[in-house]
Amino acid sequence: MSYYHNSRQSFLQQGIFLSPNSGHDSLVEGKQMSHETATPNSERVKKAYGQELDILFNISLKHRYLFIQNPKVGSTSLKYCLHTLALEGTPAPQKAPRHPRITESPLVKPYQLPLEMFETTLTSDDYLRFCFVRNPYSRILSCYLDKIAQRRQEAKIFYRQMGLNLEQDISFSTFIDLLHEHRAERGKWNRHWRPQSRILKPHIINYTLIGKFEQFEQDFERLNSYLDGVLPALVQRAPHKTQAQDRIAHFYTPALKQKVEEIYAKDFEGFGYQYNLTQTITKRPD
Q1: Are residues 84 and 181 in the same domain?
Q2: DSSP secondary-structure letter at 167?
Q3: Contacts by 185-189 with C-beta closer than 8 Å and gap 24+?
Q4: What is this structure's pTM?
Q5: How many whole angstroms separate alpha carbon 47 and alpha carbon 41?
Q6: In sequence order, which ranges of the chain are alpha helices (DSSP H)?
Q7: Which range among 62-76, 83-97, 151-165 has the greatest average pLDDT?
Q8: How many domains does the chain have?
């Protein structure tokens, strides 16, 4: 019997858990997702992620999990929790980098593992593979409010790519128009506004759990139960909090709604989100 067998059987019934190598289709909130291969291999994953592999992948050999991070879904709070666990209960310093460099992370990165061991993290039933996702409407608005409106480094790069004057303010409407116009290039976009399906690649990563930002605390507790209750208390660390969900009505028009749906169609459909701006949500970190 595999290490996570008992927990997996109970959580599969709750709808957000994917069963690796189980012979069943993957499920996210009742949505079916297909995998191009039942057992993704390390070479294929390395090729698909390229230089981002060691940035996005976080591995614990002790607790047997692979966490693939996704921007603007509460990842800072979750990584702080996982780092604290990796440091065996010693709270990670509050002044530690919010986004540590690859060599600063207390979690294992793929480059540190022999190929066969990395393969095990991707395919073994003994490893929990998880990530979190967010409703595309609020995620892209949060990205705009944090990165573009605040003129952070990501915005400067975006301006240059789009041939914009760095002194020019761009509205949310203009931002979405530009993304929509260049949507054929979305696989190469900055991770903050790249489609989540292009970051998490569920067609080649056989996830055990895909949690949702809209029910973050609930799914965090399920994750903790899956790991036999070893996670420390969740500390909310949201340095770039934008309250995007509460501001949707102010920023969205029917035309913008349609463009966002066209840009992020695979995220809506693959991760079980409705084409509905008023979809019920709960409180969670931003």
Answers
A1: no
A2: T
A3: 186/263
A4: 0.81
A5: 10
A6: 5-12, 42-49, 53-56, 75-86, 115-123, 136-143, 153-161, 172-181, 196-200, 216-226, 248-251, 254-263, 265-270
A7: 62-76
A8: 2
